[in-house]
Amino acid sequence: MDPVRIAVVGAGVVGLSTAMCVSKLVPRCSITVISDKFSPDTTSDVAAGMLIPHVYPNTPIPTLKQWFRETFDHLFAIANSAEAGDAGVHLVSGWQIFQSIPAEEVPFWADVVLGFRKMTKAELKKFPQHVFGHAFTTLKCESPAYLPWLEKRLKGSGVLILTRRIGDLWELHPSFDVVVNCSGLGSRQLAQASEMFPMRGQVLNVRAPWVKHFIRDGSGLTYIYPGTSNVILGGTRQQGDWNLSPDAEISRGIFSRCCALEPSLQGACDIREKVGLRPFRPAGVRLQTEFLAQDGRRLPVVHHYGHGSGGISVHWGTALEAARLVSECVQAPRTPTPKSNL
Amino acid sequence: MRVVVIGAGVIGLSTALCIHERYRSVLPSLDMRVYADRFTPLTNTDVAAGLCQPYLSDPRNPQEADWNQQTFDYLLSRVHSPNAANVGLALVSGYNLFHEAIPVARGGADVIINCTGVWAGSLQPDPLLQPGRGQIIKVDAPWMKHFIITHDPEKGIYKSPYIIPGIQAVTLGGIFQLGNWSEVNNIQDHNTIWEGCCRLEPTLQDAKIVAELTGLRPVRPQIRLEREQLRFASSNTEVIHNYGHGGYGLTIHWGCALEAAKLFGKILEERKLLKMPPPHL
């Protein structure tokens, strides 16, 4: 039997990790990753990559926790290996602080991260405007290194990488038997997902190597995330804003909010502005198989998009789920009967 | 009042600063000078990674615990300032790892402050003072955000690998040789450090070496922080000794400087030199 031909559309963290999981789970398949953008030009590349999960409205907490744990375990193994530097994955400790005591003092993911505890009064003295905090150690997964590292591994496994802009998923028929749609915001077009919109985020990349801890305001709007060679200061959440050009006043606001939390940042240098459009889907992550049918043609599509602010935190867990859907697709008998859209 | 401070490592400079800050306003005649043959970046202090962490076992002199706490509080109050990184101050978290569970005194000066560290013996023999030679490798490994210090009670402190990330570079170490005065880098020690640290943290294999340094820790069963009167010709010179801080000088320096300033205050009281009551320390 011929190998199943699988196209993965999208080469951000979701696309590449899905291609990886499919290559491991589905036997006798040939995989091609197709995208118009690759690292460092994907949405993932702008993200700091801190493993702190976001809640999706339609995802039960146990499922979300499983996705997070699978991602954490996968990255933790990389962080402890000699590959850590190449893959851009490392441990980082720090604080999540609140200006008022949150309804949920211990979040559902507290036992997935390392060493989770409440901050002491002495530690909170560092943040006079805040009354409560969490201290823990988590992982940082930096896409500018992680994505090329995944790509190298994919190529080593025989996966083909193609630079091409897809305007319609039917372009992939009949060259491919199964399509995996990891196009993020591109799904507005490719999956007619008009309910999706960008959640614009602006950040500053600065040099401040003395900052060894992350600091995140509980609201998620202000954060300081130290990385391998820079510190990311953020941020914004601007609904429906497609503008990819940095706004100078927003940058000043971010810098000022971050310096209020970490005054030594005033000595930061090499400040660079970046903008990313988070692929926001109101209903949360779409992990679903759809059988496209048109004029007697049939094309199975596994949708895997809509991760919004939390993509990197759950990417491996959702990629494993997507790979399972692909596997089911491949094992289903190849009949020409069209099925209705799910 | 002529005060001479000998030594310009962390102990000399902080002691000088502490005394100057507290007594300048009440002692208009205060003339303070710091003498040293080496200044930063060539002192033993400069070789240290600078992690403020007391030794895990209780100090012989219980006062040292107070001095450690005072130093920590002093530095903590300054680490949140905008200028912290410029002064070389930063917060760092990390891990202490164990193999098994641990249940834990010539005329010209009125007062001489002796902060000569490991070289104190050349001013006045002290059989209790010995060098604890250390060697470190500084690498560029900015992804390291945590210190990792291994402890081996059989080998002793600093003889087991440690990794301490700093502001610009990461310090790798694990050498402590009592009695060794050599200030030259040694290739076997280099290998010991490199192999030990890479085993702890494999990603270090990719790290670029930026510098390699040797320093002599001023090791003593306890810090010598006390007064002594020396007779030079016909006059009494007051000496305040402040040396023998081993591998924990940075951890304890400010508490010791405060104590030295207290001793200085006593000298002023005895000589009835204060115009007004001494400032509360």
Q: Which word captures the global form of chain B?
A: globular
Secondary structure: helix percent of chain B: 10-25%
Biggest sheet of chain B, in brief? Answer: 7 strands, mixed
What is the CATH topology classification name of chain B?
A: Rossmann fold
Rg calculated over all Cα atoms of chain B: 20 Å
Number of E-state strands of chain A: 15
Identify the quaternary structure here.
heterodimer
How would you explain this protein's 3D organization?
- Chain A: Its main location: cytoplasm.
- Chain A: InterPro entries: D-amino_acid_oxidase_CS (IPR006181), DAO (IPR023209), FAD-dep_OxRdtase (IPR006076).
- Chain A: D-dopa binds at residues 223, 278.
- Chain A is an alpha/beta fold and 342 residues long.
- Chain A has 8 helices and 15 strands.
- In chain A, strands 3, 4, 5, 8, 9, 10, 11, 12 and 13 form a 9-stranded mixed β-sheet that branches.
- In chain A, strand 10 (223-226) and strand 11 (231-234) form a beta hairpin.
- Chain B has 281 residues and is an alpha/beta fold.
- Chain B has one domain (2-271): NAD(P)-binding Rossmann-like Domain (Rossmann fold, 3-Layer(aba) Sandwich).
- Chain B is 24% helix and 27% strand.
- Chain B is built from 4 helices and 12 strands; from the N terminus they run βαβαβββββββαβββα.
- Chain B is globular, with a radius of gyration of 20 Å.
